[in-house]
Write a structure and sequence with these properties.
heterodimer, A: 263 residues, alpha/beta, Rossmann fold, nine-stranded mixed sheet, 11 strands, 24% strand, B: alpha+beta, 11 helices, 15% strand
């Protein structure tokens, strides 16, 4: 069987402590290097492992500004066969809905994929919506928070997904979409020969013209999300130190916990 | 003028940095205690293709350049001087000799396995009575039919007992003086090639440094690298490149000194505030940061010149001289900033200081670097 695995990635600012401009409510990106969203590294690793085990090809796709080509090339350095960048001024300012739509058009132009793998969420926006949104756009079954692919055949996949307090085992027909958690594998480092291969690799850029996207559904125009305010949460209050002997402290603690209905 | 690294260089540096953070940093102090490097780390470096970074793909390398290699040396040196030195001696001394001077057949035989990381290489020039005076070596090789018969002793040889191939400088024509020196390749395990015990060193204890003794050691005539009598010129050229890597290694160690000192100075509270608030400490940190930056720029410039096939002997010597001495200054100040704790093994700076000192000695002492620079000035 010739399977096509598609991994969708996002380029994000390197630091998780990115500062927010208090006036505009946007991320201050100047001087902060960009990386592949850390959660997407697990998706890439899983895609590469599946390709190595089952054959076929693994393709990476990203929507972003032209400089996001660096993220696509880094994925190629890791061992992905080829990459595609979806980039167009018309795509700028997209929320998760518009992003999912644009990616779906990209998948269609690619000719579909047997399995689409995404990271569980991006480290900058933290919404975890694009993966499921993409599955809905493509009308594919999907499983989120996958920690293990237990079995995969040409027509079917069985996965374990992390749910509150346990593990859920799901079987789905292919094609399907997964979002994966960090428990699924340990991502490799790119090989240096891979870096050189990536340097030479051609990354096609598909814009509105190539994808035939509806301008009303992409970029800021196609984004119903309204960001009312973005702010850095205040640091939580420090813990309280109880005074007195150990016995006195224990008594006070029990009293407090009872008062809070915690015991 | 462009001071930005290319995307290729940035990605290579980040890859090596992640490898170092994951596989080197947590273990480096332990390796020094044990006095050796584990097989595992070499295996990971081989997987990453680190050993062939600056060599052409046609010879099993990555096909990047010397600057990329220098970036890798600095990153490794930041965590482990011993691993950095092992790596540098392999790439820029042993394997570089095959790359620069080997015939096509010799490159296929020796450079390819070195670039693929299948074997380590070593370069043996120094002898008990010939250190800075490289032309004064006594090791000799006498032609006997289709073999060279080697007798002599080499000392302070990095990777000497780990290497699969050792390049040794030997007198092959005594009448021609320094023009009668050639480089010969001796594979490990050749009869008559003995490896002495390791030295008890001040630092860099996980790096393999041994004495090599050759006693009627026979190698085929085609183990002579390049042309006969070209040995000293080859050695000096190899050392020109090697010096840039020592500059980078020094920069890495100095950066580690700065990083550790900055963290400590912010955390350490005296007289009711962080000692990083005191100008006495700030000035030390500012000087360290300035020198680390200048050392790095000097190494990068020398590597850039080498990559562009321009003369770089002077710049390599300057980079090595400045970076190694800045490294020792940074290590001394790092220990000073850490106070009593800096003198203990509780913090890494004591190790950095021990390692730093070799930088002003190996691959040409500071004094020799000054001589090289003075000669380049026309003195």
């Amino acid at each position: 069987m010739h399977l096509r695995f598609l991994v969708c990635i996002k380029q994000v600012p390197e630091t998780t402590e990115a500062k927010i401009n208090p006036k505009t409510g946007t991320l201050i990106r100047e001087g902060i290097p960009s990386i592949i969203n850390p959660f997407d590294m697990y998706a890439l690793e899983e895609g590469i492992r599946l390709r190595d085990r089952l054959g076929g090809e693994v393709v990476v796709m990203s929507m972003g500004p032209p400089q996001a080509q660096a993220a696509v090339k880094e994925a190629i350095a890791l061992g992905v066969d080829r990459g595609i960048l979806l980039s167009d001024p018309a795509f700028a300012g997209a929320d998760t809905l518009a992003t999912a739509y644009t990616l779906a058009k990209g998948v269609e132009k690619l000719g579909g994929a047997d399995l689409i793998i995404c990271g569980k969420q991006a480290s900058d926006g933290d919404t975890a919506q694009v993966g499921p949104g993409l599955a809905e756009e493509l009308d594919l079954p999907h499983a989120t928070y996958v920690r293990k692919i237990s079995a995969i055949t040409a027509g079917e996949i069985t996965v374990e997904r992390l749910v509150e307090g346990g593990i859920e085992v799901l079987r789905m027909p292919l094609p399907a979409l997964l979002t994966v958690v960090k428990e699924i594998n340990e991502p490799r480092l790119p090989s240096l020969k891979g870096v050189m291969r990536a340097k030479r690799a051609e990354v096609p850029t598909w814009g509105q013209a190539e994808l035939g996207t509806d301008p009303a559904r992409t970029g800021i125009t196609g984004s119903p999300t309204q960001v009312v305010q973005v702010f850095t949460p205040e640091l939580r209050r420090q813990g309280e130190l109880l005074a007195g002997t150990a016995a006195e402290q224990a008594a006070v603690l029990i009293e407090r916990l009872r008062a809070a209905a915690m015991i | 003028m462009d001071f930005d690294l290319t995307e290729e260089h940035r990605l290579i540096r980040r890859t090596v940095r992640e490898f170092v953070d994951r596989e080197v940093l947590p273990y480096a102090a332990g390796w020094e205690e044990e006095g050796s490097l584990p097989e595992r780390v070499f295996g990971v470096m081989k997987e990453l293709d680190l050993f062939g970074l600056p060599f052409p793909e046609a010879y099993g390398g990555v096909g990047s350049d010397y600057l990329a290699y220098i970036l890798a040396v600095e990153e490794i040196g930041r965590a482990s001087g011993s691993l950095g030195l092992t790596y540098a001696a392999h790439v820029s001394l042993g394997a570089a000799a095959f790359h620069h001077f080997g015939s096509e057949e010799q490159k296929r035989r020796w450079l390819v396995p070195c670039a693929r990381g299948e074997v380590l290489a070593a370069f043996a020039l120094t002898e008990p009575d010939a250190g800075s005076d490289a032309g004064g070596i006594q090791t000799a090789a006498v032609r006997d039919g289709c073999e060279w018969v080697i007798n002599g002793t080499k000392c302070f040889i990095t990777n000497g007992s780990l290497a699969g191939y050792v390049v040794i400088a030997a007198i092959t024509d005594r009448e021609k003086g320094i023009r009668g020196i050639s480089n010969l390749v001796v594979p490990a395990g050749t009869p008559g090639f003995h490896i002495g015990p390791g030295y008890r060193k001040l630092g860099l204890r996980a790096s393999d440094t041994v004495e090599l003794v050759f006693e009627d050691c026979r190698v085929p005539v085609d183990h002579l690298l390049g042309s006969p009598g070209d040995g000293l010129r080859q050695s000096l050229r190899v050392l020109d490149g090697g010096r840039i890597s020592i500059a980078a290694l020094s920069t890495g160690i100095a950066q580690a000194c700065l990083d550790a000192s900055l963290i400590y100075a912010r955390e350490r509270v005296q007289f009711g505030r962080s000692i990083s608030g005191f100008q006495a400490i700030q000035f030390k940190l500012a000087d360290m940061a300035t020198e680390v930056d200048l050392a790095r720029l000097a190494a990068w410039r020398a590597a850039w010149l080498k990559d562009h096939h321009r003369p770089y002997t002077r710049e390599a010597a300057m980079a090595k001289l400045f970076a190694s001495e800045a490294c020792v200054r940074a290590a001394l100040e790092a220990v000073q900033i850490h106070g009593g704790y800096g003198y203990t093994e509780e913090y890494p700076v004591a190790r950095y200081l021990r390692d730093a000192k070799l930088m002003t000695i190996g691959e040409g002492t500071s004094e020799i670097q000054r001589l090289v620079i003075a000669r380049q000035l026309g003195c």
